């Protein structure tokens, strides 16, 4: 790998920016100053420093984001703020992207990465990776609704969903609301909202809690993000080995 790409991938700026960094004699490879951006780097063997600080290269980045309402799950948009606007520069430099989409008014867990293979494995309709949501519903969800979810909800367009799990956490008879958790293994457009609607109720608030084995950190505030832990990254190997 060329030195300029190595440094760019490691978060030191665009190719043009790291070329200026290299030419300023701030970069050393195996303790020798290097001034050519074309210098070849073996990521497994060579030691690289910038201003005498070691560079830790990683091929892929993995961020957990607690997506807030009001931003869209995209890398860029002309009308709305995107989830990428919430992250730091290294995610942009690494050409990272959100894995799947959450509606603009849905909040919660969103994985950001540049590992296309992992994203495909998590989103593939053939893999049926489970996703769990917590929903505040206008209306009282019942055991009958639970049975409908278990059998497979039929949406308004005639599509029959795979069997899903509906857990009723709380019911408020005075306000006629329910707090529920819903686990699905598909990712149809507005699926959770449409499933609840098929039961004659309306989703008022929707939060994604988990995607496969990856669970939202309860200490992560809305709009905040963090790098995945080694344990979380290892769990992702259950879906795709090249992590």
Automatic annotation (TrEMBL):
PANTHER family, per the entry: PSEUDOURIDINE SYNTHASE, PSEUDOURIDINE SYNTHASE FAMILY PROTEIN-RELATED
PROSITE patterns (alphabetical): PSI_RSU, S4
Residue stretches making up the RNA-binding S4 domain: 1-59
Domain of life per record: Bacteria
Protein name (record): Pseudouridine synthase
E.C. numbers: 5.4.99.-
Gene source species: Granulicatella seriolae
Family membership: Belongs to the pseudouridine synthase RsuA family.
A Pfam family that the UniProt record links to this protein: PseudoU_synth_2
